[in-house]
Structures are given as structure tokens and as C-alpha cells.
Amino acid sequence: MIESSVRLPVSPGAGRFLVLAGVFTCAACGLVYELELVALASYLIGDSVTQASVVLSVMVFAMGIGSLLAKRLRCRAAAWFGLVETALALVGGCSAMALYAAFAWTGDRGEVWAHGSRYLFVAFSLAIGVLIGAEVPLLMVLIQRVRRQDASGAVADLFAADYVGALVGGLAFPFLLLPVLGQLTGALFTGAVNAVAGGALVFGLFGRDLSTRGRWVLLAANVLVLSVLASAAVLVDDFERAARRAVYGGDVRVAVQTDVQEVVLTGGGRGSLDLFLDGRLRISGRDEHRYHQGLVHPAMRGPHARVLILGGGDGLAAREVLRHPGVRRVDVVELDAGVVDLARRDPELSDLNAHVYRDPRVRVVTADAFRWLRSARGTYDVVLCDLPDPGITASTKLYSQEFYGLATRVLAADGRIAVHAGPVSTRARVFWTVEATLRAAGLKTVPYRVGGRQSGFAAGPDRTSEGARAPRDWGFVLAARSSPVLLRAADSEVVRAGTRAAARTWLPGTAPSTLVHPRYAN
């Protein structure tokens, strides 16, 4: 039977306000946990749309389960609410560190813990969802015991406080917690706030309703959880350094979080330098010249006085462009100013790019390539798309038919576009989708590849997040208004990737990708 009365240390009006304040705080913390899981899943696993869908759908399902389970806890609503908030603070607060640890030390090695971080994402989504779902039924009992009112009014009050708290938590996560505290410390801080808010509400308003044993159990649980969170916060920097070494190896030189992404430089020499963006290997000093020569040199066989590089803030594509005589201007449109600054100032990376940013012909614009093209004026003889892989959700608009239509507007009548289209051997459908999208934008195309066993020379190694080595192969598409000619350059050794007719025999109906119908998947 549900208890119907309780002696409060404050007036019923003040008690009702304090319960709603607790609802507000717990809702804000709950939404932070959800956003934290989505952000970590997108960063550690990739494909933000898929990961967000999995996390949110699993969590909402688990909230329903938690609401059903809470029906059995209403007889001791105050005690159970305090324990639920304590558990939620521990699970939600430690979720980021646990998931990052699984990613760093297990990865995808084919062992018992292979894909461990993926399983843990689902497990944490379920656990946090169940605990969040149990909050509202218990709070409904508590607010009714503070002041009896009709059920519809109580539900309206609870959900109003819940939704406003969710708004505050949703805005605090990207604008306050992430930039000030970071993902790990931000989750720990949120857990501490959750534990304090839940404990204060129970002990402050309903402490007399708890048995002596219940008070000590709940107090001990809260102290234990807060101690764990505080200890983790003290050790978070050491933990992050150890996890980073596990992910990138022991030779991390630079690790910065820019306004756009995490940028990590490892190694110290021309042959050992690696550049990671959000955990993905972007540049390897061992073989980057093959990639950049393959991207740049075929497109430079023709007029090339004015060159536009979309992406390529590391300066390596610009280095290859400047090797061609007759280049008068190179415009680099890069979203992340931090990458450009690193390419200018880091001695190893600037040496690798031949100090191109000292050349007065190179001009940098910090902007999103899609938005910049919409307002761009003038024309270019060569447009080079040195962008992240199309399988990354944030990049799909940069591989859309609309994007290539905008690029065509700034292309000279006899100009060429070269596009990095991802590996041919492992992601052939993505590669041919890029090629079909360029054709849909009204361009003639020649697909080609660099690296891999079929290219005639050995590919360089690729460092995965676990430090393993794998063959690297890059696919490109050369496009122009008239049929472009792909010449075999001795310094790049590119080869044709095959024909569309051959591709259709095993990739039937390859369709272009658009903004409203992206066809790339990670």
C-alpha cells in the first residue's frame, strides 16, 4: 500500500517546489547522460546517425521498462528514489570513462572482448534508461504525498519540470560541459550533481520517512558514489593519457581538442609522423605522398594557374600543387583552424608539408566547404576535394550531388575536379556512389585508384586504433565537363579503377547521393 501522509520540515508549498526542483535537476542530468553516450558513440565508433538512433531508441525502450518496474517500488518511494538516483549517478557518471577504456584497451581484435565498446554502449543505454524511467513514477508518489492533488495536475507539474530540465541539460552539454570540462570530467561532474540532488531531496524532505537502517544505507551509498566520482575526477588526466597511449601508441607528441575535433600527432620524423582526427588516421608519413600525389597530379595535367583545395588543412595537398610550375594562386578552404595552425607551427608537420603556408600564393579560408561554395566568386582551373571519408556522417553533404553542383559553378570551362572517394577494395559501393554522384552533377568522370595490390606497387601501412597494420588503398574520381584524360604519372603511378559497366555487374543500380537521400554508410 502506498503511504499517503508524511510530516515535512517545510510547508507543503515549499515541499512541492523542492520536489519539482529535484525533477528539474534529475532531468537535466539524464539528458546529459544521453547526449554523452551519443557523442561518445559517434566519436569512438562512427556514423553518428546510426549510433544516435541505437542509443536513443534503446534508452527510450529501457525507460518504459524502468517505469513498469517502479510500480513495485512505490510502497517505499522515498528510499527507492534515493537508491535509484545513487545508482544513476554512478552508472551515468562513470559511463564515459568505462566506454573510453573499452575502446582503448579492447577495440576490435577478434578476442572475447572484440567489439566490447559496442556492447557496452547498448548495456549503458539500457541501464541508464531503466533508471531514468523509474524516476517519474516514484516522484509522482512523492509529490502526491507532499500535497494531495488530482493526478492530471501532478503529471502536468512533473512533466513541465522534467522538460524544462531536459532543455537546460541539452544546452549545457555542448555549450558548457564539453568546452569547459570535456567528456570524461563532464560526465563525472554530472553524476556528482545527480547524487547530491537526489540525496538532498530524500534526506531533506523525507528523511523522517526512512528507517534508521535505511538512512545509513542510503547515506553510505551516496558517500561511496561521490567518493568514486571524486577519485575518478582526480585521476582523469592520468587515465586519459594512458588510454591515449593505448589507442595511438606511446609516441603521442600533440593532443589538442579544437573547436571541431580532437587532433593527435604521433611520431617525430618524416617517416613516422601520423595525424589522427577524432581517432581516425588521416595522414601517415610513411605513405602520405602516394595519396596526395594520386589526388593532385592527375588533375594538374592541364591549365592550373588557380587551384582550390577543399579541406587539406594539413598543407600536404598544397605541397604537391606547388610543385607544378605556373601555379599563381592556391586557396585552401578548411573547417578546422586548429589543423591549419598545427600545420604552420609544428616543426615535423610543417617540414612534411614543405612550409607551404609561408608561400604567398597560398591563402587559407576557415569555413565549411559547402557554405563557402554557395557564396564563392571567381573560377578555378583545378578543384581538389581532400575531405574525410564519405562514410562519416558529418561528411556526407560534402559528397552530395548538390555539393558537386556548387563546385561546378566555380570550375573553369576546361577545369578538372579530383575527389577522394575512399578505398575501392573494402568499400566499393561507397566509391562507385561518389562516381555516380559526380556524373549526376553533369560531369564526365574517370575513376582511379592508388595503392593496394592491384596498383602495381606496395601500399603503406595503416595504423588502426589498436595499432595494427593494414594495407592502404585509396580511390579517386577525376571529373570535368568534357571527358578527362587520366595520364599515368611516374610519381603517382595511378591506375584505372575499372569501368562503370563492369561495376554494374556487381553493384546494380548505383544511384547518386543527395542532401535529402544520403547513400553512404559507415
Structure explained in plain terms:
Helix content is 52%, strand content 15%. The two termini are 52 Å apart. The protein has an 8-stranded mixed beta sheet with strand order 7-6-5-8-9-13-10-14. Strands 1-2-3-4 form a 4-stranded antiparallel beta sheet, covered by helices on one side. Strand 3 and strand 4 form a beta hairpin. It is α/β, with parallel strands linked by helices and 522 residues long. It contains 14 helices and 14 strands. It is elongated, with a radius of gyration of 28 Å.
Report the principal-axis shape: elongated
Kindly report how far apart the N and C termini lie. Answer: 52 Å
Biggest sheet, in brief? 8 strands, mixed
Trace the largest sheet across and list its strands: 7-6-5-8-9-13-10-14
What is the element string, with H for helices and E for strands? Answer: HHHHHHEEEEHEHEHHEHEHEHEEEEEH
Total number of strands: 14
Strand content: 15-25%
Low-pLDDT runs of 5+ residues are 1-5, 109-114, 453-471, 501-506
Mean pLDDT: 84
Class of secondary structure makeup: alpha/beta
Please give the share of residues in helix. 40-55%
Assembly of the depicted chains = single chain
Cα radius of gyration in angstroms: 28 Å
Instruction: Output the number of helix runs.
Output: 14
